[in-house]
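Lecture 7 notes: from sequence to structure.
We start with the chain below.
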Amino acid sequence: MSDTAHAGRHRFVVSAFWAVLAAVSFAVMMTSVRHMDGKFDAFEIVFFRALIGVFIVIPLVTKSGLKALRTERMPMHIVRTLFALFAMATLYYSLAELAVAQAIALTFLIPLFTTIAAGTALGERVGIHRWSATLVGFAGAMVIIRPGFVEVSGPVLLVVLSSALYAGAWSSVKILTRTDPAAVTVFWMNVLMVPLTAIPLFWVWVTPSVEDILPLLIMALSGWSAHFCQARAFESSDASAVMPFDFLRLPLGALFGYLLFAEFIDAWTWTGAVIIFLAGYYITRREALRNAAE
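Predicted structure tokens for the same chain:
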């Protein structure tokens, strides 16, 4: 094996390692929110996640000095933060009533909504293949939701809305990273999210008990870890190479849900999740090939 091939294989193994950790972290985060069983309002959960995230990210981004945190794109940082805030809140509201794995399955819609945003708001060229894959992915969502056959619940619609909002956040990051380093975008998201989520706390605040501290810490740390590990996975390999490992979120979520909450996931959810995921993978792969050609 040549040195180049060996180095490429090593980079992929490292990326796969971080991608697996990201999937585990995401499943743990979703499970920890489900464990709270609606005791805390979603905005309070987001507040604690952002507050703990600030303490984590400050030492990482201040190594280069406070000047490195300056940005000329503060309005866009606020837009990105609002997208992320309401994406988290709607997802957390849904987890009070929805099975962990079912919620995870519907979050695979995020790349599909991102494609729609790229072809509309961002003005990117989206070909017939990616549009077709997007339609197929939404067909997979219909397999899970089955409108007309079962009642479409509010929590299900909240996860779909959350996926659309996350796509807005991803698209905002695409714009921001043209001028600002990724660490700066993470810093400002956490810092801005604390006062924004503090506002509704006047009406929804519930004082955590000693028993709540550990679940809240696990939620915040695993949520931060999911984003950090995903970023590290993409450092050495493109998204399409490591995306298959992201599917681990679903069986892990199903396992945690079964062991902790006795949740059972039907065949419709598994089938729809596979369809959505494959459509998202195809879109990601097509985008990687297009970028390589350019």
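Points to note: Residues 114 and 170 are 7 Å apart (CA to CA). Residues 3-293 form one domain.
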